[in-house]
Amino acid sequence: MFMSKNAFLRKVTGVNIPMHGVIQSPPKELEDLKNQSVVYVGVDDTLVGLIYIEDQIREDAKHVIESLSKQGVSLYMLSGDKRSTAEYVASMVGIPTEKVICGVKPDEKKKFIRKLQKNQSIVAMVGDGINDAAALASSHVGVAMGGGVGAASEVSSIVLMGNRLSQNSLESN
């Protein structure tokens, strides 16, 4: 079902939000970008702009995924992002789409970790934010990325102070 952005916002908010000065249909190339989320900016009940946000994929992620896969490690990607974004990122780093679980809330990440553990699997979880904290705490080995502050690092077994996955002791050369 196609719905204009204004119709979508009206349906979600129940309010008719004027879109003064905003392109009603963004260029197709913007709609096709898979690794972006859209933030709608409003002033005084008027939509005045769109901001496209893109997470950067860590430069060594593909190498680490390949290395762990060669060692027989079963890898999953749990993401709160929409399907197109999560699958795009997974394709860039070498995770098959059937191992991508998207739109996952923090408690669902924790439940997924518990499900893997019920199968007698040793589970390591790598995360970088508050939305990963419960799953990191539930895993056998929690690995927090990105600097050592915040909820993720508070509950993790390992904190990587840099922003590189390849520091991870799970990887071998």
Overall structural class, as computed from helix and strand content, comes to alpha/beta
Order of helices and strands: HHEEHEHEHEHEHE
Strand order of the largest sheet: 5-6-7
> Can you identify the CATH superfamily of the largest domain?
HAD superfamily/HAD-like
Could you name the CATH topology of the largest domain?
Rossmann fold
| Total DSSP E strands | 7
Q: What is the domain total for the residues?
A: 2
**Biggest sheet, open or closed, and with what strands and sense?**
3 strands, parallel
Using only C-alpha atoms, the radius of gyration works out to 19 Å
Oligomer: single chain
Quick one: CATH class of the largest domain?
Answer: Alpha Beta
CATH architecture label name of the largest domain:
3-Layer(aba) Sandwich
Poorly predicted parts: 168-173
Subcellular location: Membrane
Organism: Actinidia rufa
GO molecular function: ATP binding; ATP hydrolysis activity; copper ion binding; P-type divalent copper transporter activity
Protein name: P-type ATP-ase 1
Task: Outline the structure in words.
The strands form 3 sheets. This protein has a 3-stranded parallel beta sheet. The chain is built from 7 helices and 7 strands. Mean pLDDT is about 80; it is low at about 170-173. The chain is an alpha/beta fold and about 170 residues long. It starts with a helix and ends in a 13-residue tail after the last strand. The chain folds into 2 domains: about 5-55, no CATH class; about 60-165, HAD superfamily/HAD-like (Rossmann fold, 3-Layer(aba) Sandwich), CATH 3.40.50. Strand 6, helix 7 and strand 7 form a beta-alpha-beta unit.
